[in-house]
Amino acid sequence: MEVVILAEAAEIGGVAADAFAALLEGKPHAVLGLATGSSPLAIYDELAARYAAGRISFRRARGFTLDEYVGLPADHPERYRNVIDTVFVSRVDFAPGAVQGPDGLAEDIPAACAAYEDAIQQAGGVDLQVVGIGTDGHIGFNEPGSSLASRTRIKTLTRQTRLDNARFFGGDLDAVPTHCLTQGLATIMAARHVILVALGRTKAEAVHQLVEGGVSAMWPATVLQHHPHVTVLLDDAAAQRLQLVDYYRETYRSKPDWQGL
User: Fold this and answer.
1) Which of 163, 183, 174 lies closest to 118 in space, CA to CA?
2) Active-site residue, 127 included
3) Is 246 in the active site?
């Protein structure tokens, strides 16, 4: 697990965008795992800027979103398929239909989850997966207690997650859905490279558990300690609980120029 601590979100966006660029240069048809929420926004802003400048293209790439609320109308602005279109997909040159998401309006939820899992496999698996982390250590919507072997499925959201997300619904907790579809922890673990972004002091305890705690279903993100290629991108506030913070800073500063994420 590589831990990179930077001063601000814009720097994090640049470092992550470099990883996207390197991947797409060598594999233009790469499969990208796309997360929503506030943490990845700087990445998408930087990628959109590079596309506008002619420095990167997603024309041959494919994308799979991480999760989706159950029951939100197709035109709801907080439906994650609409969010990812707004913050990223519509700003670059993905081919029509190249980005898919779980179907939160499916009549047969288990079948829809199985079909989504199969679509990822048929695409060849995810090359680069972006994730955030919740204050309770969830990734995707794999809440505390989730099976470390889980695949795409329906989950009940904890009250804490709904409180955290109420800001996207005008502060109205009752407007936040109670259920979601999410890639499972084993699905995320199958990605060839995972980039986790955490910003702000409210994420500090979850980051501490992720990097320095024991692997536990009560802190689902800790399963990433078993992944062979994880990059954790943090601002100073999110890193403040790390016991080895000086070591992580020095390790990144002394990395050879040729060694990418």
Assistant:
1) 183
2) no
3) no
From the list 138, 164, 193, 208, the catalytic residue is 138
Tens digits of residue pLDDT in 228-254: 999 999 999 999 999 999 999 999 888
Q: Are residues 127 and 191 in contact, defined by beta-carbon separation less than 8 angstroms?
A: yes
**Would you say 148 and 217 are in contact if contact means Cβ atoms under 8 Å apart?**
yes
Which of these is catalytic: 143, 193, 208, 235? Answer: 143
138 has catalytic annotation: yes
CA–CA gap between residue 80 and residue 100 (Å, rounded)? 11
179-182/67-69 β-pairing: antiparallel
Q: Which residue of the set 45, 46, 103, 136 is catalytic? A: 136
Among the options 45, 46, 67, 68, which is catalytic?
A: 67
Place of tokens 């997603």: 58
Residue ranges covered by each domain of the chain:
1-257
Rounded average pLDDT per 10-residue block, the chain, 261 residues: 95 97 98 96 98 98 97 96 98 98 97 97 98 96 95 95 94 96 98 98 98 97 98 98 95 79 81
Q: What is the 3-state secondary structure (H, E, C) of 198-210?
A: ECCHHHHHHHHHH
- Reference 32, options 116, 112, 124, 103; nearest CA is 124
**Pairing state between β 153-156 and 179-182:** antiparallel
The pLDDT > 70 percentage for the chain reads 99
Classify domain 1-257 at the CATH topology level: Rossmann fold (3.40.50)
